[in-house]
């Protein structure tokens, strides 16, 4: 029975998450959907930012039984593009809240390309964490291989 559970986890969750990550990476590299890149400036690229947000929503919609949200943190530009939160410009007024996301803190402290965060209670509404219903959530965090386009 444990073998069956392991196989189910591998095929239904891990492979789905990994394959969608690879699809997303391919989209950033090929730029076929004109997504907002990690080296792009925010100024003048609002259409790309919107397209990236819509693309993330599409991935979640197509995989909603496994993926509930996708958040991409752009460290250089200080923005977060999220399938559930939209676009968050991490300026001085909202920076502390969004930077306290455990997945950002966990990944920043690791010297690895990916981590799984164990199931924990996470607010259903990240914009109102103190009053929101909390759900159990397993989180996969993966860094994007950064490279310069020529």
Description:
39% of the residues lie in helices and 21% in strands. It is an alpha+beta fold. It is globular and about 55 Å long.
Describe the structure in brief.
This protein has 150 residues and is α+β, with helices and mostly antiparallel strands. It has four helices and five strands, in the order ααβββααββ. The strands form two sheets. It has a three-stranded antiparallel beta sheet with strand order 1-2-3, with helices on one face. A two-stranded antiparallel sheet has the order 4-5.
Main β-sheet, spatial strand arrangement = 1-2-3
The N- to C-terminal Cα distance equals 51 Å
How many helices? 4
The beta-strand count equals: 5
Taken as a percent bin, the fraction of beta residues is 15-25%
Class per helix and strand makeup: alpha+beta
Helix content: 25-40%
Rg over CA atoms, rounded to whole Å, is: 16 Å
- In N-to-C order, the SSE pattern is HHEEEHHEE
Main sheet attributes: strand count, strand direction, barrel closure: 3 strands, antiparallel
Low-confidence stretches at least 5 residues in length (pLDDT < 50)?
A: 146-150
The overall pLDDT average reads 80
Shape descriptor: globular
């Amino acid at each position: 029975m444990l073998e069956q559970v392991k196989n189910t986890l591998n095929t239904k969750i891990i492979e789905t998450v990994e394959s969608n990550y690879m699809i997303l990476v391919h989209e950033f590299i090929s730029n076929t959907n004109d997504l907002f890149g990690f080296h792009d400036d925010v100024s003048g690229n609002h259409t790309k930012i919107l397209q990236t947000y819509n693309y993330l929503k599409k991935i979640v919609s197509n995989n909603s039984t496994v993926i509930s949200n996708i958040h991409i943190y752009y460290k250089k530009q200080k923005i977060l593009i999220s399938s559930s939160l939209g676009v968050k410009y991490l300026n001085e007024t909202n920076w502390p809240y969004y930077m306290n996301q455990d997945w950002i803190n966990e990944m920043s402290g690791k010297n690895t390309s990916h981590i799984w965060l164990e199931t924990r209670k996470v607010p259903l509404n990240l914009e109102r964490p103190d009053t929101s219903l909390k759900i159990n959530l397993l989180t996969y965090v993966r860094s994007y291989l950064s490279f310069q386009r020529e």
